[in-house]
Amino acid sequence: MITVIGTGTGAALPPDATAAVAGAALVVGARRHLAAVSAAVAEGAERVVLGPLPPALDTIEEYVGKERPVVVLASGDPGFFGIVRALAERFGAGRLDVRPGVSSVAAAFARTGLTWDDAVVVSAHGRALRTAVNVCRARPKVAVLTGPGAGPAELGAALAGGPGARVLVVASALGDPERERVERVTPAEAAVRDWGDAVSVVLCLDEARALAPGRVTVAGSAVGPARWALDEQEFAHRDSMITKFEVRALALARLGPRLGDLVWDIGAGSGSVAVECARFGAAVVAVEKTPDGAERVRANASAHGVDVRVVRGSAPADLPAPSELDDPDAVFIGGGGRELPEIVTACAGRVRRTVVVAMAALDRVPAVRAALIGAGLDCDGVLLQSSRLAPLPGEVTRLAATNPVFLLWGTRPTAAADRPVERHTGREGVAL
After folding, report:
1. Does residue 253 sit in the same domain as residue 402?
2. Position 427 in a domain
3. In this structure, are 63 and 176 located in the same domain?
4. Dihedral angle at the C-alpha atoms of 31, 424, 201, 9, nearest 10 degrees?
5. What is the SS3 assignment for 142?
6. How many structural domains are present in the chain?
7. Segment holding 291, helix H or strand E
8. Digit-coded pLDDT (tens) for 200-241
9. What is the pLDDT of residues 286-319, one digit of tens each?
10. Could you say which residues of the chain have pLDDT below 50?
11. What is the domain extent for residue 241?
C-alpha cells in the first residue's frame, strides 16, 4: 500500500499521519517534508528525496513489489494537480491511501475572503505560460499554479495593459507562520518585482466580478454559452454591417474558440465574432480602424459580460507585434479591400491553428485562397446562401434571401484537432 499524505500548505505532518510514517519501509518527499517527519520515521527505513519523478517511482515500485509499506509526502492536496495522478497511473488507484491537506488554491482564496467554487484553476508549472495568460484575460477569477519562468513577474508582464481591470494576489509561503505573505498588486507592479522561489499560487481577479451573483451549481467556469450564433439584434451595429448569424455559426465551428485560446478578429466591425469567441472562453483581440466601430465593439463586449481587447488601427500595419502579444490560435478576418490578401498572409504567418475569412466579393476569393495556401495552410471553403422566413400581408410567409458570402478557411497541417492533455508533476500536491 502507498499512503500519500498531503501536508496542507505547511510542512508539518498532520496528526493522523504519524502512525503511517512510523510504519513505512520507504518515505518519499521533499527535503523540508522529510525533515519535518524525521522523528517519526522508523530506524532502518529508506528515505528518498524527490527530485526527478521517474527514479522515485522506480524505487517505490521495488517496495510495492515486495509488499512493503510506502509513504509519499506532498504539499497541499496531492490529488489536485499533484502526485496522485502519476502514482495512480503507475500502480493503480486501488493501491493508494490518499490523505489530502488543504490546497494552496483553497488557502489563497480563504486569505482573500472569496469563494473559489466559480474560479478557474490553471497550471503554468512545467508548461507554456500562454494558456494561463489567456485564461486570465478571459475569466474574472483565476488561480494560477506557478513555476520557474512562469511566476508573478512573467504573468504580470503578459497581462499589463490588457482588457479589464485585473489585480494579482500573490500568495507566498502559505502555511509558514513566519514567512507567509499575501500581496495585492497590479500586473505592472508584479512585472518589475523579484518574487523569489516561495510563491505558492497567484490569483488573477477582476474584483468587480470576483463574487459571482446567485448560487453556483457547477464548480469552475462555465463550459460554454447556452446559445451561439446569436441574432443580429443582440448586438449594436451600423446599417446591418455585421456578420450574419448563419455565417457566424460556421465561422465559429471552424475557429473552434475555447478556454486558453487567443483569437484575433480582424476588421471587427460590430465585434459580433469577437464577442461570441469570448463567450466560449477564448481571450480575444479585436482590430477595428474606425473610432465608432472600436467603441461599438467595447459596448457589445460589455453588454455580453466578456472581455475583448480592442486595438484601434488597420491591418496588417497595426496588428499586435509578437513582442506585444502571443501568436493567435485562430484568426477571423471579416473586412478588407484590395489589401485583403496581404492581411491574410500576415495573419496566416503567425496563426497556430486556423484562419477563417468571410468575403462578399467573388473577385477576392482566388487571391485569398492563394494567400492561405502560400502560407502553408490547408485551404477549404464554401459559398453560403440562405433564405430566412419573412412575413407577408395576409398572415403568409415568404423566403427572403440574404446576401451570399464566401467563407474560406486555412488550417495548419501540424495542428492536432484537440490540444493534448498536459501532465503536471510539480508544485501543488507534489513534494518538489
Report:
1. yes
2. no
3. no
4. -40
5. strand
6. 3
7. helix 291-303
8. 899 999 988 887 666 777 887 766 788 999 999 999 998 888
9. 999 999 999 999 999 999 999 999 999 888 887 8
10. 415-426, 429-432
11. 232-411
Largest alpha-carbon pair distance within the chain? 95
The pairing of strands 330-333 and 262-266 is parallel
Residues 65 and 125 both lie in one domain: no
Q: For 160, list phi and psi in degrees, rounded to 5.
A: -60, 130
pTM of the predicted structure, to 2 decimals: 0.84
The per-residue pLDDT for 241 is 85
- Among 205, 202, 133, 201, which residue's Cα sits nearest to residue 165? 205
| Nearest residue to 269 via CA among 247, 294, 250, 233 | 294
User: Do residues 277 and 308 lie in contact, with contact meaning Cβ atoms separated by under 8 Å?
Assistant: no
Same domain for 196 and 284: no
Q: Give a yes or no: residue 110 inside a domain.
A: yes
With 0-12 CB in 10 A as exposed, 13-18 as middle and 19+ as buried, what is 361?
exposed
SS (H, E, C) 303-334: HCCCCCEEEECCCCCCCCCCCCCCCCCEEEEC
Q: From its phi and psi, is residue 22 left (phi > 0), alpha (psi between -120 and 50) or beta?
A: alpha
d(CA 122, CA 136): 9
Q: Residue 65 falls within a domain, yes or no?
A: yes
Look up residue 361 and give its amino acid.
A
Cβ burial of 65 (10 Å; 0-12, 13-18, 19+) is exposed
DSSP state of 173: S
Q: DSSP class of residue 100?
A: -
Residue 16 is predicted with a pLDDT of 72
Which of these three, 86, 102, 118, is where a domain ends? 102
Rounded to the nearest integer, the mean pLDDT of the chain is 89
What pLDDT does 325 receive?
73
Nine-digit cell at 110? 480563504
pLDDT in tens, 357-406: 999 999 999 999 999 999 999 999 999 999 999 999 999 999 999 999 99
Give the long-range contacts of residues 286-289, CB within 8 A, separation 24 or more.
286/310, 286/311, 287/311, 287/313, 287/314, 287/315, 287/318, 287/319, 288/312, 289/313, 289/314, 289/318
Coil, strand or helix at 354: strand
Rounded CA gap, 62 and 432, in Å?
21
Q: Which grid cell is 198?
A: 516561495
Neighbours of 228 (CB within 10 A): 16
User: Which has the closest alpha carbon to 122: 64, 80, 168, 180?
Assistant: 80
